[in-house]
Amino acid sequence: MCKLTNKQIEFAKSMFDIDGNTYYDVCRELENKYGVVINPESLRYYITRKDKPKVTLKDKLAIDGISKMLVLSDLHVPYHRDDILDIIKKHAEEIEVLVLGGDVIDCYSISSFKPLEPKPLITEMANCHRLLKDIQNIIPNVRKIIIKGNHEERWAKYMSNMSSEVNKLHSDNIMREIVKGFESHDRQAGTITTYEQLDYEIIDTWYCQVNDVIVCHPITFSRVAGKTSEMALNYFVEGGFDFNVALVAHTHKASSCYKYGKYAAEIGCTCKPQEYANKDKLTYTQQINGYFLATFKDNKFDINHSRNYILQ
Hints:
Blueprint: H1 6-16, H2 23-34, H3 40-49, H4 57-63, E1 66-72, H5 84-91, E2 97-100, H6 121-138, E3 143-146, H7 150-162, H8 174-179, E4 182-186, E5 191-195, E6 201-202, E7 207-210, E8 213-216, H9 227-238, E9 245-248, E10 254-259, E11 262-267, H10 275-278, E12 289-297, E13 300-301, E14 307-311
Parallel strand pairs: 1-2, 2-3, 3-6, 8-9, 9-11
Antiparallel strand pairs: 1-12, 4-5, 7-8, 10-11, 12-13, 12-14
């Protein structure tokens, strides 16, 4: 395609605005005035298309009443999978909402497992902040929600056991501490590292609802495939919630069920296998890595175009 200068484009537009002039007429005028040879179809691009704003994939989906939500759970930072950012990039252009479904941070150092050489909690927090910031940079204009998991509860229990006046300076949700920004003091080195505030919604409960889908991270669970999904449906139906789908975290498994005319799925996890989860337990079963992409049509869950991705 022949490339026109800005001056030539303005001239072409002015000639095209004259009644009766066709693209062929303007092509001849360009050749007469500037010696530029261009075909009518290429000229059409400059006159009618070049200045139009680019239509994004989300814009195209919105025209059809379609929106999408990405749900990742059980990252257990700093023991998260190495491909988290790749997953975000894969779906960045199509999603309107990202939900991190609990156990975003592991809090291993303040757990009941009493690790011999745990990563310091401040290191876990710094790693978590770094990952959340990287995600935010990839999808700055996407709504980002974090719900509470049982590993986040380790922080509240730790604070409670400390029984200190300093507790009044802190939230009982460690994800709120991380997202609002914090400082790390290395007094031996005499340095302070500042972690900025991030753009995430922190939900101080174990579930949230987007359209007709509930994302939840229950404390109790069953080892029987699909049973936790059924239990989630029981809970929310008996609780009077208005919903059609429950996406269940925490189990590190992938299964689904239908009940009450509603759908529920355990969506897997996005962390690396942890040795402490096995510990020679004969009841231990291998975790399943996965995440869920929910598609909505006119704000209603579309099961035919939604998918539970299973990762290797």
